Amino acid sequence: MNALLLLAALSSQITFNTTQQGDVYTIIPEVTLTQSCLCRVQILSLREGSSGQSQTKQEKTLSLPANQPIALTKLSLNISPGRSGENSCYCF
């Protein structure tokens, strides 16, 4: 994991903006760093329902400027009743 993003996580500079419209949940991790950084961002979603398991992964490399809140990526999930899941954001 990139040390700058690890420091951001430890100092509460990573936030997760979430919205819901019906069964669709949108998750946008946002980070503010004190120094510019070139980082790879990965969001992984694992879900389980009556028909089995699914995995969704988004990944990209970003040049993050210092002292500005930056939305890293956006993940939209259709989560209907009876489904469970886990979502993770990895930054390195």
Automatic annotation (TrEMBL):
<dbReference type="InterPro" id="IPR053722">
    <property type="entry name" value="Curli_assembly_CsgC/AgfC"/>
</dbReference>
<dbReference type="Pfam" id="PF10610">
    <property type="entry name" value="Tafi-CsgC"/>
</dbReference>
<keyword id="KW-0732">Signal</keyword>
<keyword id="KW-0574">Periplasm</keyword>
<comment type="similarity">
    <text>Belongs to the CsgC/AgfC family.</text>
</comment>
<protein>
    <recommendedName>
        <fullName>Curli assembly protein CsgC</fullName>
    </recommendedName>
</protein>
<keyword id="KW-0143">Chaperone</keyword>
<dbReference type="GO" id="GO:0042597">
    <property type="term" value="C:periplasmic space"/>
</dbReference>
<dbReference type="InterPro" id="IPR014491">
    <property type="entry name" value="Curli_production_prot_CsgC"/>
</dbReference>
